[in-house]
Amino acid sequence: MTREWVDGHLDLAYIAMQNGDIRQDPKEDEVRCVSLPALVRGNVGVIAATIFVEKGSDAARHPWGYRDGDDWNGANAAAEMQMAYYESLENEGVVRIVRTPQDLADDSRTRLLILMEGADPIRDADDVMRWHKCGVRMCGLTWALGSRFAGGNQSGGGLTSAGRDVVAAFDSLGILHDASHLSDAAFDDLVSMTNRPIVASHSNARALMGSNQRHIRDDQVREITRRGGVVGLNLYGKFLAVDRAATLSDALDHVQHIAALAQCDDVCALGSDLDGGFSPEAVPLELRGPDQYNALTDALMSRGWSASSCSKFASANWLRVWNAALHSGAKSL
């Protein structure tokens, strides 16, 4: 069965900076899972394309890096370079950047909804409008290491005062909150200060993985469900199984665990994170490229999922959430 797919997390600009021209399939010396041709072959119509910048002295030597949490200029420059890359693809007619509900509905090209993964490129709450004008429609306050706005899954800590101001600015513009790299304390703070939808763009079930805060708690799934959000399945093998090679069956177990917690078919989605800093060998064998995503829904149907539920997982759940956020943002301007 041919399905339209929506992928809620792909580091396309980062992949291009690391491993070659994503407008073409990988060459023999390019170790990556993703290309725009493979996305087209897989009927992946919409992608949450990230602006991903990483802090640290080693990272700062690369185009996507910046020195530390005080290095706003470095974080901003790295982010602007990635935004310019997406704009260049749009100018070439290869993709369309999603800024409005009408853009999301236009299936004449692959559509990119821009997700900022870690908010350090944003100077402060007053700077949020600038990035919204550029096209950012979804944002996580931090990557793993924490930011000046929130504690990350490796650093701990809640929202800072500046983070609370940025959350309010996101809400005023309809920018969707992504909780995937928040610490537990930061997630709980976010829930306490906004009534808007929250998503976890690329997170798996902590109940199946141990205590690592990179994975999502059962009560967090329930809270995301209550708010009408989604949880995107991450295909990285080390986030699917502990101390062994992950399989397609492991991926299904995470989906079914989250669906059981949600008690509906409106929450599970795909946020593959393919090539988020790892090689194809780090992904289950059947899922090493976007032209293999149908293996997920074929296997879910073999476990008793209906065609309608599979379509929600493949695309409709993300589209529902993004449409609502884009309409909300349009009303606020």
Explain what this protein looks like in three dimensions:
The chain has 333 residues and is α/β, with parallel strands linked by helices. Helix content is 38%, strand content 14%. It has helices spanning 12-19, 36-41, 72-91, 101-105, 128-134, 161-173, 184-193, 218-226, 248-262, 294-302, 307-332; strands at 5-10, 44-52, 54-55, 65-66, 95-97, 110-117, 136-140, 176-178, 198-199, 231-233, 268-270. The strands form 3 sheets. Strands 1, 2, 5, 6, 7, 8 and 9 form a 7-stranded parallel β-sheet that branches. The chain has a two-stranded parallel sheet with strand order 3-4. Helix 7 (184-193) links the parallel strand 8 (176-178) and strand 9.
Could you write a compact summary of the structure shown?
The protein is built from eleven helices and eleven strands. The chain has 333 residues and is α/β, with parallel strands linked by helices.
Unreliable runs:
none
Query: What is the level-2 CATH architecture name?
Result: Alpha-Beta Barrel
Please identify the top-level CATH class.
Alpha Beta
Beta-strand percent range: 5-15%
How big is the Rg?
A: 18 Å
CATH homologous superfamily descriptor: Metal-dependent hydrolases
Q: What is the overall shape?
A: globular
- Please count the beta strands (DSSP E, at least 2 residues each): 11
